[in-house]
From TrEMBL, chain A:
Domain DUF1553: 298-405
DUF1549 domain segment(s): 47-224
Signal peptide: 1-21
Keywords recorded for this protein, A-Z: Signal
Biased amino acid composition, Basic and acidic residues: 272-284
Designated name of the protein: Cytochrome c domain-containing protein
Keyword Coiled coil: no
Phylogenetic classification of the source organism: Bacteria, Pseudomonadati, Planctomycetota, Planctomycetia, Pirellulales
Region (Disordered): 266-296
InterPro entries in UniProt: DUF1549, DUF1553
Organism whose genome encodes this protein: Bremerella volcania
One protein family per Pfam: PSCyt2
TrEMBL record, chain B:
Superkingdom, natural source: Bacteria
InterPro entries found in the cross-reference section: Alkaline_phosphatase_core_sf (IPR017850), DUF1501 (IPR010869), TAT_signal (IPR006311)
Protein name: Sulfatase
One Pfam family this sequence matches: DUF1501
Length: 550, 432
């Protein structure tokens, strides 16, 4: 806490201007007693500086860089949600350009698949466990790389009469039936703060987590309602709650930082006025029109205070932490929804620097993503051969992360397609559109796979599905001209056959022992060679290497 | 002092302060061992040796307490059915349950549930999770908790099986592993009594099926040698269970049972699934839920109950007899439960509506003090007049009777989450 105070004070100084897109840093950004690196450094450089500094402090030697094939696979899965084709793998391995990794990152980020993958990832973040989706809104937003603060504003305040923003309101719409949930989901998703425990009592140690914070946050939403599929907001209504001492209190409009907002005094309408209001709303419902806009919108106040960040930049830090977690499998603050002063970041300066950078650069998420994957820290091998494995918050070893349903389903499609259809002799546009249609075809299978949450465990249903379901046999292990199986069956030379299989499925060439095992497997079944090829492909597709990003 | 309600808060600081608070009280409460999700807890290991099982008979839609466990004959709300004495002096149940009446020794009736939620969806969630939903924590349901607490990690039989072949209310009767992870999700049977993907496809020989699993394992072993993550481990564990689970295929096939046993259970789907449930618990499955729908008798309540309670009476008594004869009842608890039950007031369509304020459930067998009634309702059955409990208390009772301390905590990240909400306490009278 002693350290956290100056930090909060600093943030107050840093974010005291009203503007959200611009502020001037004078280089005295001291935090935790040391200076932040200058703002003109590259993100990758800064990431590596702070990660290395902590490793050095704890005398930990990080694992070596992953090999080229591994880096290619990891980066491709992370940026465009699929594995590289065997042709992409072959050319990346043969590439001798010293900037080949940067070129790869540029190529992937520049492709439409990057936008689609961003949409998938953010839809999962914003609408977890929800049948509804924000995809319709997110696709154009990520296509034009809309700033994150603007997206937040649109998700909170999207105008029903604006076709471009209408879809954004789905976030609020799907939660409006339960204002407690809306309150907590907004706090968790956009600010990395889980206030739900404060529903019942003040947190004993974390001063930020008090009942008045929860009900203060709830006050931003308590006037929001749905009317015939449209979101509206009333001009009146207060939140009252009972303290643990049994006292009934009226909540103030209070942001997570404790900042109380002033608002015009309103009188509760009488029964007559309420009746009138109900009538008006019924009429609007019939006419399929949105309720009138309030004269004073509490949700608007939330957006303003959150982006003004005059007390602490929860908003910027939360998204930096989420994006970091996505690429490293572990946040700079863990758990992701416990960002409060008493739960220190493993690398406070880094989080501070990245948040500052994000705000200074117009909340450009693509810039943040590009910077993070360009670092050396991102490229470490996930193999740890040393004695004691460092804690995950050291980022000393590459992480092993379960694929999302989209990633795994797309991987299965790309891996089992005939590799010739992605060959160098094919037109780039054709390859791109083939990959896009495989991605599309993967949606059905993706629904069969569980979305990985924290501490994700693979269930036996998945293993049974892959072991015994007809669909796997019919869709992934089918023999035809456009499938990997079809191609493999035509290859006579067993060494070549295995190389083609491993390049397509594992995105690398086999190691000698693997090759020996696979050759032996095929040779022992030479009486039923075709079947043996099918089963070998199955074993490779269901191997852990295939199921994880490593 | 306020009631203990701070179970959710989970900053590291809170955990430490909470745990140090607890450790001062540890001399008496020695049971607060942390259940780390990623580690096999010693406590649970001990329990598993005792081979405890649960069969939950889920009376979907809400059976009527007045036509089952808590009859009120002669009162305004009592309806046409009489109450009959049971083999335990002083206990009367509905005349629709003559077979259970002759076997009350192993069964405890709880007549004092007040769960407040009279909606199918909300009530069913509550009675599956034992607690209200909390934002941003997805709790496991009873089946997932018991699969984890009573199951074996490498079991060759499924450890959580859920039958729900009717369509009414199926969406409410959740199977939710929540933070315990998909490993503990039920094997869910909704279209017939045999699970999906358990049988080998004809297009692959048994030999090839086995050998490709061996190849898969060999390849994965190389990969995981120097890598580490709990979900990576679970992936391989899931595959390593496949062949074993496939061999449990026959457990779902009642044609393997002697005709005399099948005849005893009877020909209904509910009866057949209860017989499968017995086969499963006998083979080591810790949790089976058999759902019977649809009890939602807003009209013609008495005809509905005449049919459904008679079936329940026959099947439940057969199941208890069968378990007992095999020496399984000592280790197997049988529960009847619904999302809520039915209003004492009889409506204009001779039906009873949703009612969650004063209703009943039953517990039999393992760990249960049979032949007793806990709690009581008033003379019309409108309110609980004695021994009121909520869903959390019921779950605490069930866990305690199975030898699981209900206040044991799971750690999700650094958040301590007890098996039941902290206000809940087990009903000691019901526990043997």
């Amino acid at each position: 806490m002693a350290l956290a105070r100056p930090c909060a004070l600093l943030m107050r100084l840093l974010f005291s201007t009203l503007t959200i897109t611009f502020f001037v840093s004078n280089g005295t950004s001291a935090t935790h007693g040391s200076e932040l690196l200058p703002e003109d450094r590259s993100i990758a450089e800064v990431v590596d500086h702070y990660i290395s500094a902590r490793l050095k402090k704890y005398e930990i030697e990080a694992s070596p860089p992953a090999n080229d094939a591994n880096v290619l696979r990891r980066t491709t899965l992370d940026l465009v949600g699929r594995i590289p084709t065997s042709s992409e793998t072959a050319s990346y391995l043969a590439d001798t350009d010293e900037f080949k990794r940067q070129n790869l990152i540029d190529r992937l980020i520049g492709s439409p698949a990057f936008v689609r993958h961003q949409v998938n990832e953010f839809d999962a973040l914003l609408m977890p466990y929800d049948k509804n989706s924000l995809r319709e809104y997110l696709l154009p937003a990520f296509t034009e790389n809309r700033p994150w603060d603007q997206m937040f504003q649109e998700m909170m305040l999207g105008r029903e009469d604006d076709p471009e923003q209408k879809g954004a309101l789905q976030f609020v719409k799907s939660r409006v039936g339960d204002i407690d949930r809306l309150t907590n989901d907004v706090s968790v998703t956009f600010f990395g703060v889980n206030v739900s425990c404060a529903q019942c009592h003040d947190h004993p140690d974390v001063f930020e987590w008090s009942q008045d914070r929860f009900y203060g946050m709830k006050s931003f939403f308590n006037r929001t309602f749905e009317n015939g599929g449209f979101i509206g907001e009333r001009d009146y209504g207060l939140v009252s709650y009972q303290t643990t001492d049994g006292e009934t209190r009226e909540a103030q409009l209070m942001f997570l930082t404790g900042k109380v907002l002033k608002e015009p005094e309103v009188a509760e309408p009488d029964d007559e006025a309420k009746k009138e209001e109900k009538k008006t709303l019924e009429a609007l419902k019939k006419k399929k029109q949105a309720p009138p806009t309030p004269s004073f919108s509490r949700r608007e106040q939330l957006v303003e205070i959150a982006l003004k960040s005059s007390e602490n930049n929860y908003f910027a830090k939360a998204i930096v932490n989420r994006v970091w977690n996505r690429f490293f499998g572990y946040g700079l603050v863990m758990p992701l929804d416990q960002m409060h002063p008493a739960n220190e970041s493993s690398h406070p300066e880094l989080l501070e620097w990245l948040s500052r950078d994000l705000v200074q650069h117009n909340y450009d998420l693509t810039r943040l993503v590009r910077g993070i994957v360009s670092s050396e820290a991102y490229c470490r091998s996930s193999n740890w051969t040393g004695d004691s494995r460092p804690d995950p918050d050291m980022f000393a070893v590459g992480s092993v992360r379960p694929l999302t349903p989209f990633q795994y389903a797309t991987l299965l499609r790309v891996a089992t397609a005939n590799p010739d259809s992605f060959g160098d002799d094919q037109k780039t546009e054709d390859v791109q559109s083939r990959l896009a249609s495989l991605e599309n075809a993967a949606r059905g299978f993706a629904r069969e796979i569980e979305h990985p949450g924290a501490e994700f465990q693979v269930g036996v249903a998945e293993a049974l599905l892959f072991s015994n379901n007809e669909r796997v046999r019919n869709e992934l292990l089918r023999e035809s001209n456009d499938t990997l199986i079809g191609k493999l069956k035509k290859i006579d030379d067993v060494n070549e056959l295995i190389s083609v299989a491993t390049l397509s499925i594992w995105n690398r060439l086999p190691e000698p022992e693997e090759k020996a095992a696979l050759v032996a497997y095929l040779q022992n079944r030479s009486d039923r060679r075709d079947e043996a090829i099918v089963q070998m492909v199955w074993a490779m597709l269901t191997s852990s290497e295939c199921r994880f990003n490593y | 002092m306020s009631k203990r309600r701070n179970w959710f808060c989970g900053s590291e600081e809170h955990r430490i302060s909470r745990r140090s608070f607890l450790s001062t009280a540890a001399a008496t409460a020695g049971s607060m061992s942390a259940l780390n999700l990623l580690r096999e807890p010693t406590l649970a290991e001990e329990l598993k040796k005792q081979d405890k099982r649960v069969i939950l008979l889920w009376l979907a839609g809400g059976a009527s307490q007045l036509e089952t466990w808590d009859p009120k004959p002669g009162s305004l709300t009592g309806g046409p059915f009489a109450a009959i004495p049971t083999s335990v002096p002083g206990i009367h149940i509905s005349e629709l349950m003559p077979k259970m009446a002759r076997r009350m020794e192993d069964t405890a009736i709880i007549r004092s549930l007040n769960t407040k939620d009279g909606s199918h969806g909300g009530g069913a969630r509550l009675m599956h999770l034992g607690r209200r939903d909390e934002a941003s924590v997805t709790f496991p349901d009873m089946g997932a908790v018991l699969a984890r607490e009573l199951g074996n990690i490498d079991s060759r039989v499924p450890d959580n099986v859920s039958f729900y072949t009717a369509t009414e209310g199926r969406g409410n009767a959740i199977g939710q592993a929540g933070f315990l992870g998909a490993r503990y999700l039920p094997m869910s049977l909704t279209t017939n009594s045999k699970p999906d993907d358990l049988a080998r496809l004809e297009s692959i020989s048994d030999l090839d099926h086995r050998q490709r699993h061996d190849l898969r394992e060999l390849l994965s072993k190389r990969f995981i040698e120097y890598r580490h993550s709990s979900s990576l481990r679970s992936h391989n564990e899931a595959y390593s269970r496949v062949r074993g689970l496939m061999s449990s295929d026959k457990l779902f096939d009642i044609s393997e049972e002697p005709q005399s046993i099948r005849d005893r259970y009877g020909p209904s789907l509910f009866a057949e699934q209860c017989l499968i449930a017995r086969r499963l618990v006998e083979a080591g499955t810790p949790f089976v839920k058999v759902s019977r729908a649809w009890w939602d008798s807003h009209g013609q309540n008495f005809e509905t109950h005449l049919e459904l309670v008679s079936e329940l009476d026959h099947v439940m008594s057969t199941l208890l007899d069968d378990l007992k004869q095999r020496g399984l009842l000592e280790n197997t608890m049988v529960i009847t439960l619904a999302e809520f039950e039915r209003t004492p007031k009889i409506n204009a369509s001779l039906g009873r509506d949703h009612f969650a304020s004063a209703w009943s459930c039953s517990l039999s067998g393992c760990g249960i003090n049979g032949g007793m009634v806990y709690g009581a309702t008033d003379e019309d059955g409108q309110t609980v007049k004695d021994g009121e409990i909520d869903a959390g208390d019921l779950f605490a009772t069930i866990y305690q009777a199975l030898g699981i301390d209900p206040h044991t905590e799971y750690y999700v990240g650094s958040r301590p989450i007890p098996l039941v909400h902290e206000d809940a306490s087990a009903v000691k009278e019901v526990i043997a």
